[in-house]
Amino acid sequence: MVKEVVIKNKFGLHGRPASLLVTTAQKFQADIKLKKDKITVDAKSILEVMSIACAKGTPLVIRASGVDENAALDSLVDLIDNKFGEE
Amino acid sequence: MKQPSDSDLELFGLKGSPGIVMGKIVVVDNKTKWQRRHLDSADVPDEIMRFKIAVARTEHQLMDIYDQFTEHLADYSAIINSHILILKDGMIYDQTVQIIEDKQINAEWALDQALQAIEQRFAELDDLYIRERFVDVRQVGDRIFRMLAGKKNEPQFSGKVILAARDFSPEDTLRMNQDMILGFMTEMGGVTSHTAIVARTLGIPAVVGVDSLTDLVKTGDMAIVDGGLGRVFIHPGEDKLAFYRQYQARFEQVDEQISLFAHLPSQTIDGLDVQIRANIEAIEEYSQAVRCGAAGIGLFRSEFYYLGREEPPTENFLVELYADLLSVLAPFPVTIRTLDLGGDKRPGNWPVEENPALGLRSIRFSLWEGSLFKTQLRALFRAGVQGNLRILMPMISSLEELVRAKEIITLVKEELSAEGLPFEPDIQLGIMIEVPSAVEVADVLAGEVDFFSIGTNDLIQYAMAVDRINENVANMYEPLHPAILRMISQTVKCGHDKGIEVGLCGEMAGDITFLPLLLGLGIDELSTSPLIIPHLKRMIRNSTAAEVTELAARILSLNSANEIRNYLCGYLPRNYPEEFGIKFS
Fold first, then answer.
1. What is the CATH number of the domain that holds B22?
2. Is residue B496 flagged as an active site residue?
3. Angle formed by the axes of helices B107-123 and B44-69, nearest 10°
């Protein structure tokens, strides 16, 4: 399963939003990857997520594969679309 | 008041958390020593187990801290949470295990290798903010190293002390027992580090980023830590101790009363409104400003985000920074001062100048260099859509300078329109009045801007040719000199004639001794460090516009600072007994 999203919250994937995304990803068994340009990182690793430095407006591809891939994708897309509950 | 003078050693750092403490230093050596050790293949599983146990215990420790501290203070939970995530991150955990297995070398070396790889990866990032978050990775790493060494993570000592260390993590700071610890200082860290943020929220005075600190001080040394100034004095003399005891007393008094009356309005008995706003330099300080009852930010010193780093911040970084500050404070105004580099705030590679106070500094540097200024202006106009922004330009000394700066602003707006980027075109523009020549032509300048802000620190220095850091002449630095008061009065008149607001943001604004006089001179806005704001507001509520106007007229008729001081010595205790009582002298 693959979904495309755009980071909409003001600070991008920094600090609290990054932690929240990783914590959410870790709740699922599925293997979850984030792809920015040509770089693919593990959505369950805070350091990898931080290392792609996603500012506001960055397009991302989320790819999940595993038994709960649909639920995982829905949760992550929700989180990003709701700007991590920031506003 | 006597100026600080002798001290064996004065150390310069960054403002970690305001407050003044004096006491004995305990140096905490929280860096563990280890050696590279080759393992027999039979010992590899045990070594991996030793590492995994250390991580599990560290996680347990962090969870404990989380449970203990985050109930009331939600801000910390995000920080500790991210540290727990970092601890268990594959780039640290899996990598270290892998290296132990592959190379058959001890856990400490393997962990160090894993951390170095992360450091390298972070160092390549364009995003300054994320690059700086490597500090958190290192703090988590240090915690595992200590656990591997079997060291207790809590330093041991007795009595009230000042801690000194290479670095403290936010968790270390959270666990500092305030009955035992007066304050702390570190080599690492900046004003926006998580450690500094936690220290500020807890109210633990701290100075961070002191170069070579742990080489320069030892356990048992006497020290004064001035967190608001970012200074440390080692082996201070009796004069300096006396000076700081006085300051400390005032600081504590203000702190206790904040919650009682911070929220009340700043209006005189007869209905004159005066805006009291805060001076800040790191964005996180906004919460303290709000808590102290500030009606917005009167001075955001933007240069802080340019100092102590190799490259200037990017436009996008600044847009986010400013937008966040604006949106949390809206509808209150946020006055952001454009770069005020030079003088005593010079980045490392600054050209050597014989007389930097009169050199290429502030707006002169911005106009001369060009690109930094333009980037900052673009970020300001773009962020402006998020709240109530006012732009303040420092050290304007002539109409030509102001016109040049305004031309650049027009250009920046045209560029932004052409690029189709959203921005707020109508932003109030103001200038600092801090050069005597600007006072003399204030009538002309007032026609070109939306507000003035008088910067008394520089205005006094330039008007009286006194460097107040130079102890030989510091006693000549005199805010009550009639020349200074006339300059303030003239600036206010010129501003009001053109219908613009005139504020004042130097240290005079935060000194309650001057408040009635400044009100009487017609100042519309005072901007000062947050902690004194509740006091200023209370004094305003006990004033009447009629009385302070009369006071100012009377004082303007006096001939010398001494006469003015004598007059105030009689006036203040009579009119403000709560503040000045019988002790004022």
1. 3.50.30.10
2. no
3. 60
Report whether pLDDT(B555) > 90: yes
- Edge-to-edge strand ranges of the sheet holding B231-236: B7-12, B231-236, B222-226, B20-28, B161-165, B181-186, B206-208, B14-17
Inter-chain contact B89–A15, Cβ cutoff 8 Å? no
Q: How far is B16 from chain A (nearest CA, A)?
A: 20
**Degrees to nearest 5, angle at CA B151 with B150 and B157:** 155
Q: For residue B523, what is the domain's CATH number?
A: 3.20.20.60
pLDDT at B160: 86
CB spacing of A12 vs B85 below 8 angstroms: no
3-state SS, one letter per residue, for B240-284:
HHHHHHHHHHHHHHHHHHHHHHCCCCCECCCCCECEEEEEECCHH
Both B298 and B418 in one domain: the answer is yes
Contact B90 A45 (CB under 8 A): yes
Map residue B33 onto helix, strand or coil: coil
Out of A12, A19, A53, closest to residue B78 by CB: A19
Positive or negative: CA dihedral B53, B171, B218, B179:
negative
Non-local (6+) Cβ contacts of B313 within 8 A are B128, B305, B306, B321
Nearest to B85 among A12, A14, A22 (CB): A22
List pLDDT tens digits, range B501-538.
999 998 899 888 899 999 999 999 999 988 789 889 98
Q: Contact B371/B315 with Cβ under 8 angstroms?
A: no
For chain A, what is the domain count?
Answer: 1
Domain encompassing residue B353? 262-554
Question: Nearest chain B Cα to A17, which residue?
Answer: B78
Q: Do residue B91 and residue A55 have CB atoms under 8 angstroms apart?
A: no
Looking up residue A31, the CATH number of its domain turns out to be: 3.30.1340.10
Task: Give the phi and the psi of residue B430 in degrees, each rounded to 5.
Answer: -135, 170
Chain A interface, Cβ < 8 Å to B: 10-12, 14-16, 18-19, 22-23, 42, 44-48, 50-51, 53, 55-56
Is the pLDDT at B583 greater than 50, yes or no?
no
Whether residue B504 is contained in a domain is answered as: yes
- Specify the 3-state DSSP secondary structure of B503: strand
Number of domains in chain B: 3
DSSP-assigned beta bridge partners for residue A65: A31
Alpha-carbon distance B345 to B350, whole Å? 10
User: Same structural domain for residues B236 and B282?
Assistant: no
For CA atoms B447, B548, B532, B568, the dihedral sign is positive
- Full-model pTM: 0.59
Give the type of residue at B270: D
On whether residue B255 sits in a domain, the answer given is: no
Chain B residues with a Cβ under 8 Å from any Cβ in chain A: 78, 81-82, 85-86, 89-92, 118, 121-122, 125-127, 129-130, 133, 137, 316, 320, 323-324, 327
Specify the DSSP element, H or E, that contains B288: helix B286-291
Residues B170, B197, B533: CA angle, nearest 5 degrees:
150
> B569 an active-site residue?
no
Query: ipTM of the assembly?
Result: 0.88
List, for residues B264-276, the tens digit of each pLDDT value.
Answer: 889 999 999 999 9
